[in-house]
Write a structure and sequence with these properties.
It is built from 13 helices and five strands. The chain has about 375 residues and is mainly alpha-helical. The strands form two sheets. A three-stranded antiparallel beta sheet has the order 3-4-5, with helices on one face. It has a two-stranded antiparallel sheet with strand order 1-2. Strand 4 and strand 5 form a beta hairpin. The protein is globular, with a radius of gyration of 24 Å.
Length: about 375
Amino acid sequence: MVRKDSPEIEINVHSTPATTSQSNHSHPPDQNHPPEEWFPWLVPTIFIINVALFILSMYINNCPAHSQSCIGLQSLQRFAFENIHENPLLGPSTSTLLKMGALDANKVIEERQRWRIFTCMWLHAGVFHIFTNMLSLLSVGIRLEQEFGFARIGLLYVVSGVGGSLLSSLFIRKSISVGASGALFGLLGAMLSELLTNWAIYANKLAALIMLILMIFMNLLVGILPHVDNFAHIGGFVTGFFLGFILLARPQLDWIVPPGYYGHPMKPQYKLYQYILLGLSVIALFAIFTTGFVFLYRKIDGNDYCSWCHYLSCVPTPLWSCDPQCNSIKSGNQLNLTCLNNGKSKLYVLPDGGDADTTQKLCSLLCI
């Protein structure tokens, strides 16, 4: 399962904080200066790491060594893309992504490879996948890092990515998942909570809120398409939303304006509602991650407790099926699959003969 739909670049609607006071009185100039911006270096570094790992995955994949139907074989040679039936996003094979740390719920749960929850967020399935995700990262992440600094945005990015992977591993059992969009949806969720917790210091707040909610809804709606890991999107968004109340709250100024006098600012301080939101968010995140890891440790399938939750990631229509079905013919180490949904067929050579889980994953890829 590829997280190929990241937040669109149009979501960059982060409002500029308004002047704290609405009074007509003048205030000391040093109190009206906008907050000093941080120099953004972490987000570009994350961008470089993701691109470098994608190039490394293509080098390790070495398509010509195991296939004669690679795309761009003459010009790209070792870096040629897998056949479009294997990977329609122009990237490495499934086996290469698994080798490098893709999220596979069965390996996480049965083989206790918990590290995949973290590593999968740094891998991408293809050129189109990494292009959309990195474009969103730069357009959203740099702005947030300029305003709040690398430490808070870095923590927000990583924890949101882990939250997305955790929810995905509890519900997605028949395919693998890679991509940074869980972390990117975390940034999107944090933008919403940041707007809410700092509501008093923003101009055009209602318009910004409506636009942001609309963009969030549109991006989550795309996630109901097949082969898109919307559980990672939802998990990342919810994690980022609560983290935003904890990490991105701004202290606010109160002004005392006696009749006939200019106002004098009080010491910046957090409001009571900000403390309440912070406390509730800490409790919520603790409950979410504790429950998630306990379920993971006990090998619980989230679908057993929520029979309708699979519709959050894919809604079946006459145009596609959410549960791909294939006819399989096995002879020795050769497996011939035919997707019943789109009619595609392909012959796979599996050194170990393969098992039912491998067959289902190959069927999911074939039916894309």
